[in-house]
From TrEMBL:
Lineage: Bacteria, Bacillati, Actinomycetota, Actinomycetes, Pseudonocardiales
Entry-linked PROSITE patterns: ABC_TRANSPORTER_1, ABC_TRANSPORTER_2
Protein name: NitT/TauT family transport system ATP-binding protein
Amino-acid biosynthesis in keyword set: no
Gene Ontology MF term list: ATP binding
Record-linked InterPro entries: AAA+_ATPase, ABC_transporter-like_ATP-bd, ABC_transporter-like_CS, ABC_transporter_ATP-bind, P-loop_NTPase
Keywords assigned by UniProt, alphabetized: ATP-binding, Nucleotide-binding, Transport
ABC transporter domain boundaries: 5-238
Keyword Transport in record: yes
């Protein structure tokens, strides 16, 4: 394998002895530069565990992860993660701009460069006018936009997203899906996104990676050949979309 991200024979077991639980059996896949790949699978199949291993937040029990050909041990400098629980990943005492700027302090950037990156990222997610507010003054959807802006300002080679829209309402979820497609195009992002929502995976992805139940393995990798630009109404109503989401649903069920 020789993609931007290479995952080879990765597995993870929690605990040991009689109390051991193998969440991820053996998973291998690649992500190419500029791709948006979604991971789906049955509830409890180890999707989040897999993503934490990829991020370097959790050491796998076996197998390997490499980014740009370099083994991942600890969180790589050019990787960012957007978590599901946005309310716990923002600093309530910092403003929106302060939250977005916070991780840039270790990037060797001048104050002016950090300010420009924050402004650009907030513009991408439509929050320029909220820069001086605090997270607790924003809706859940706006807070998650701040988390996405923070990841974008960091300019990672790879952005990992762990069910990032699971805690918002349906309309906000649709808006955030379209936001990811928009900023991915504008920022030339490579994205690996975990979701339990089959429709979301097909709508967003270039490829959908379908996992089995725990201990998970890769059941199938489906190429999503939907034309762009994608639209919440037109795309989801197309025959290709319906065929693909049915195929993913059948793979997960069986």
């Amino acid at each position: 394998m020789n993609g931007m991200l290479d995952v080879s024979g990765l597995g993870h077991t929690y605990g040991s002895g009689d109390k051991a639980h193998t969440a991820v059996g053996e998973v291998s896949f690649t992500v190419e530069p500029g791709e948006l790949v979604c991971i789906v699978g049955p509830s409890g199949c180890g999707k989040s565990t897999l993503l934490r291993c990829v991020a370097g937040l959790l050491e796998p029990s076996k197998g390997s992860v490499s980014l740009h050909g370099n083994a991942v041990s600890g969180v790589p400098d050019d990787l960012a993660v957007v978590f599901q629980d946005y309310s716990r990943s923002l600093l309530p005492w910092r403003t929106v701009a302060g939250n977005v700027e916070f991780p840039l302090r270790d990037r060797g950037l001048s104050k002016a460069q950090r300010r420009d990156r924050v402004a650009e990222a907030l513009s991408w997610v439509g929050l320029s006018k909220a820069a001086g507010k605090h997270p607790w003054q924003l809706s859940g959807g706006m807070q998650q936009r701040v988390c996405i802006a923070r990841a974008l300002a960091y300019r990672p080679a790879l952005m990992l997203m762990d069910e990032p829209f699971a805690s918002v309402d349906a309309q906000t979820r649709a808006d955030l899906e379209d936001l990811v497609l928009k900023v991915r195009e504008e920022a030339d992002m490579t994205v690996l996104l975990v979701t339990h929502d089959i429709d979301e995976s097909v709508y967003l992805a270039d490829r959908v990676l379908v996992l089995s139940g725990s201990p998970s393995t890769v059941v199938e990798t489906l190429k999503v050949d939907l034309p762009g630009p994608r639209d919440q109404i037109t795309t989801r109503g197309s025959e290709t979309f319906v065929r693909l989401r049915t195929e993913v649903a059948q793979l997960i069920r069986h």
